[in-house]
Q: What sequence folds into this?
């Protein structure tokens, strides 16, 4: 059984983490996209930079008028179009598989039906699509549907471990489950954005600058390698 006092202390600590991070890098709410647009964009974003992701996204939208045209395109053509995002063969296969399944199930490529689903149901549906993991599904819920869900990317998972919010060996999926349980709904979007910014600038995978970190005193620095 969860200790109510311990849980309250953790919630207060999470609130303080968000306040300290927000003082230096306020989080702004992202504009909502169509759920299918968000899904495809997130697939393109995997294992690449934001700049390369958006280059591929813009090339995709210039070449094809809609998702029906994409699903009808030869895979080699789509692969060439999205090449700036990297892993083009893998990503083109995923995109075509997702679009074909949605067309077969819904009559056209759409994710409009997600609005009627609870968060857990929506994540279960999305992760049932080929090549879609929990992080990608959470991005659709968070950024397209406006749901209070924390997508867990490499930055969020790394910092959650270092802060001791999740066990050191927690997978990305387990980290998602824990954070979406212990972080108050009203802080989930903000904390996601703040942790990504903090992970890129201060709490980096290699050589984190702990001496200038605003979370000093709140962070047990789990799995942080000391300088040689």
A:
């Amino acid at each position: 059984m969860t200790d109510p006092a311990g849980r309250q202390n953790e919630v207060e600590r999470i609130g303080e983490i968000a306040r300290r991070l927000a003082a230096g890098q306020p989080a702004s709410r992202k504009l909502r996209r169509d759920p299918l647009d968000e899904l495809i964009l997130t697939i393109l974003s995997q294992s690449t930079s934001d700049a390369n992701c958006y280059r591929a996204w813009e090339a995709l939208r210039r070449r094809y008028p809609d998702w029906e045209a994409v699903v009808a395109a030869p895979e080699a053509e789509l692969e060439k179009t999205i090449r700036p995002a990297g892993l083009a063969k893998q990503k083109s296969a995923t995109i075509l598989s997702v679009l074909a399944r949605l067309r077969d199930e819904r009559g056209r490529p759409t994710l409009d039906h997600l609005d009627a689903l609870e968060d857990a149901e929506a994540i279960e549906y999305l992760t049932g699509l080929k090549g879609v993991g929990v992080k990608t599904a959470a991005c659709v819920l968070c950024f397209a549907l406006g749901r209070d869900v924390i997508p867990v990317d490499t930055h969020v998972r790394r910092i959650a471990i270092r802060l001791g919010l999740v066990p050191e060996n927690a997978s990305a999926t387990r980290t998602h489950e824990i954070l979406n349980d212990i972080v108050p709904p009203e802080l989930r979007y903000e904390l996601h954005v703040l942790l990504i910014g903090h992970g890129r600038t201060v709490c980096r995978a290699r050589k984190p600058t702990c001496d200038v970190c605003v979370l000093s005193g709140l962070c047990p620095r789990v799995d942080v390698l000391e300088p040689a």
Summary: The domain at 35-144 is CATH 1.10.340.30 (Endonuclease III; domain 1). The chain has two domains: 15-28+150-212, 35-144. The chain has eleven helices and no strands.
